[in-house]
Amino acid sequence: MTRISPLHGLGALALATLSSAALAGPVGYGAGTTGGGSKTAVNVATLAAAQAAIDAYSGSGGLVLNYTGKFDYSTITDVCAQWKKAAQTLQIKDKGDITIKGANGSSANFGIHIVSAAKNVIVQNMTIGLLQGGDAADAISIEGDSSGTPNSIWIDHNTIFSSLTHCSGAGDASWDGAMDTKKGAYNITYSYNYIHDHQKVALNGYSDKDTANDAMRATYHHNRFENVQSRLPLQRRGKTHVYNNYFNNVITSGINVRMGGVSLIESNYFENTKNPVTSRDSSAIGYWDLRNNYVGSGITWDDPGSPGANATTWTTTQAYGATGYSYTVTPAASVKAKVIATAGAGTNLAE
């Protein structure tokens, strides 16, 4: 059955004027992020070269890395050997005005960690897959610490994947997060990313006790989540705006809002998804403002436990209020085709 959730005040005239074109540059809470700007790109082909360039950089004024390396994923013949190996991570710590952009055809077997007082950072057009390191290896992790909190971050047009294989002895850590936001990181936009064949996609809030995440603000738009298990995102506290994303073949749960967090879930396209909008597995529930979502076939639900809630009737549980930024919405029924055509690396940043 196809269903569009209630309009919640969006008038017919406004709906008719919505455009299918995304705005150029970062839209949402990460708006204004410029990264390294127009600085001449430095070509790097390895993790070591990329880390050396970041370490040598003063920390402000602009650095653009053009990653040209190619990793042959076919050389990984046993995916369950990966979690036992040491993690490989490119770290950006306490530095800003940085762009990391993958060249078309590039591919990587290392994660990117944006930590502490890092700010004004763009990660774009990277293909990252089958990371080693288990729960020590996120594909992209944005994380505050006692020295500072990352902000003004744009994660755009990347392709991230691993495997749906659950490896013996790994517990739930065969693979860790694809796009994680932790410990108060804020003003972040995740746009046009393609996450597939992955288990734990997007953690937002380190734990139920991560009170720093009250200040978190993140936008997820025009992302493609397909053949994934859960966390789309898993949100503890804070506020997220989740609009114009495509969800297909979601095995366990989709958008999971917890610990008093509020999410504006708008004009997304859901099909073949279990528990597409839910609150479960924390000591307190979260809330959602649902607007104009396309609900296709293959939607199923199970018991969220106590405390818990499911959006089985597709009704709002708490008004979100104003986002504080302008954006253009793709009509929900058009999202699937648009996102499949534009999300991920190698699309020439199509919008």
UniProtKB/TrEMBL annotation:
GO terms for molecular function: lyase activity. The keyword Secreted applies. Keywords: Carbohydrate metabolism, Lyase, Polysaccharide degradation, Secreted, Signal. Residues 1-24 form the signal peptide. SUPFAM superfamilies: Pectin lyase-like (SSF51126). Pfam families: Pectate_lyase_4 (PF00544). Gene3D superfamilies: Single-stranded right-handed beta-helix, Pectin lyase-like (2.160.20.10). It is found in: Secreted. The keyword Transit peptide does not apply. Coiled coil: none annotated. Residues 37-276 form the Pectate lyase domain. Transmembrane segments: none annotated. Its main location: secreted. Belongs to the polysaccharide lyase 1 family. This is Polysaccharide lyase family 1 protein. It comes from Pelomonas candidula.
